[in-house]
Structure formats: C-alpha cells, structure tokens
Amino acid sequence: MATIPDRLQRVRDRISQACSRFGRPDDSVTLLAVSKTFPGVTVREAFAAGQRRFGENYVQEGVTKIAELADLRAEIEWHMIGPVQSNKTRVVAEHFDWVHTVDRLKVAERLSAQRPADLRPLQVCVQVNTSGEASKSGVAPAEALALARTVAALPRLQLRGVMALPAPSVDPAVQRAELAAVRAVYDDLRAAGLPLDTLSMGMSQDLETAIELGSTLVRVGTALFGQR
Ligand SMILES: *Cc1c(COP(=O)(O)O)cnc(C)c1O
Known about the structure:
TIM Barrel, binds pyridoxal-5'-phosphate
C-alpha cells in the first residue's frame, strides 16, 4: 500500500492537473484532508508531509484528536465538516477553526455566542442541499441567501462560503448537475454582495469535476488515508 506522503502527492497532482486542464491557477484550490476515523498518528504523518488543514465529521472524535495533537495546534487548521447539533455548538466553537455545515439559524447564533473572545471569528460555510431530499442536512437553495445574510451579520462568525455534499451518483451527469447547482447558489450569494471566497465541494471520487465547476476547497479522505 502506498504511504501517506505518496498518496498526498498523488492527490496534489490530481488537483494541479485539474486546475491546469480547466484554466485555473494552481493555488485556487485548497486541499482539506478528511481524517475522520483515522488516529492522531495518521494526522501526524500527513502533517510531516506538509498537510496543514484537516477535516473531522464527529464532534467528540475531532475534539479528542485536536487535544492529542495539541503540540501542533498553532499550525493546523481544524475544520468541522459533519452535522452540528445544538447541544454540541459550544465544544465546536471552542475547538475548531472552521465549520462547513451551518444550515440553521439557531446553530449559527449559538456558535457565534459561544465563540471564545480570544479566538479569531469562527470561519463558516452555509451547507446547501440541492438534491431536495428532506432528510438530508443543508438549507434549500431558495433559502440560502436569507440564511447567509443573517449568518454574515453575526459578530463572532465570518461567513466564507457554501458547502455541499451531493449524494453519490453512479451517473456522472447527475453528479455534475448537482455540483453545478451548488455553484449557482454560490454565484447568487456573491452577486447579492456577500464577500465569499470558499466553495467547499468535491471529494476523492469527484474532485476533478468539482474543480471544473469552480470548487475552491476539496475535502478528501479515502484517496489520502484509505478506506474507512
Ligand atoms: C467523509 C467525508 C468526505 C471525504 O470523502 P472521501 O470520499 O473519503 O474523500 C468529505 N466531506 C464530507 C462531509 C465527509 O463526510
């Protein structure tokens, strides 16, 4: 099996090849390494290979890992990319740098109120659900602007962009249409005057298509760390 530095290099190559293929500067796409279910020692290996941004899905697992890697805290940016329940907002606000999954005003208000004064504002994305499945997290595209405006006005949050987690599809055309719909929401919010710079979409399987459609941050787990 390939080592983590090899896999990291391979993913970086995929990103830069996609960038050049789609006429984008190399540095216009950020790699977020999704370390959920992998131990702190694995994060250390990726860190040693130069990776600095890590994403976690589960609040308790993430906080445990952040504590385990406290010696690297100043150099790592920790992103919460899983659902955040209202009763978990305080621990998220106290430990993470970013939250990608804000889809309710109540959660946004609590994160802002609970963000410690000595930390920089929490960097957030509004999660959008373009598939229309009622059960999935994310705000409907028609409601994204209203939520984004309210979030942007909260004092201890800095609204950075839009995140989406399209359901995996065997049909590339369906996958592409979903990513394009997310991009459209991002463009609408920017056109409405919100100063966004982050379009968080694309994972191990579809990062090239996501980059083609304008992603600025790809969240990659399996291609870096292996199957979970
Ligand atoms: C697990 C996860 C990823 C990474 O997915 P891979 O297919 O393993 O690259 C990205 N984003 C979110 C929200 C995830 O939960």
